[in-house]
Amino acid sequence: MDCLFCKIARKEIPSDIVHEDEKFLVFKDINPKALFHVLIIPKKHIESIDHVELQDKELMGELILTAQKVAKEKNLQGYKLAINVGRKGGQIIDHLHLHVLADL
Ligand code: AMP
Ligand code: ZN
C-alpha cells in the first residue's frame, strides 16, 4: 500500500516509536502541536473514520485502550485525543490516526 503511515507501520520509513503491538504503532508526531504529541495508527490501512466498518468495532475500542495505555506508561496527568476526518476536517494523511496531545 502506497501510504505514508502504512510505510511507517512496516518500518520502511523511520519514525520515533513510543509503543508497538500486534495491531497498533504509536510514534511521535514529526511536527508536534503540544509538548507531548504522538499518533496512534492501526497497522491495518483504514482511510478515515468515514471508512470504518462494523467489523472494525473491536479495533476502534482497542485504539482508545491503546491511548489509555500510552498515557499511563508516560504518566500523563491529562491529555486530549483528536481524530481529523476528511480534508475539511483537517485530515492530511489518509490513514486513520488518533492524535494524543498533552502539555507536560
Ligand atoms: P492529520 O492532519 O490529522 O492528517 O495529521 C497528520 C499528522 O501527521 C500531522 O500532525 C503531521 O505532523 C504528522 N506527520 C506527517 N508526516 C509524519 C511523519 N513522517 N512522521 C510523524 N508524523 C508525521
Ligand atoms: Zn495506510
Detailed description of the structure:
The chain has 104 residues and is of the alpha+beta class. It has a single domain (4-102), classed as HIT family, subunit A (2-Layer Sandwich). Helix content is 22%, strand content 23%. It is built from two helices and five strands, in the order H-E-E-E-H-E-E. A five-stranded antiparallel β-sheet has the order 1-2-3-5-4, with helices on one face. A hairpin with a 7-residue loop joins strand 2 and strand 3 (36-42). It is globular. Adenosine monophosphate binds at residues 15, 27, 29-31, 39, 84, 90-93.
The gyration radius over C-alpha positions equals: 13 Å
Bound heterogens, unique? adenosine monophosphate, zinc ion
CATH third-tier fold name: HIT family, subunit A
Distance between the termini: 36 Å
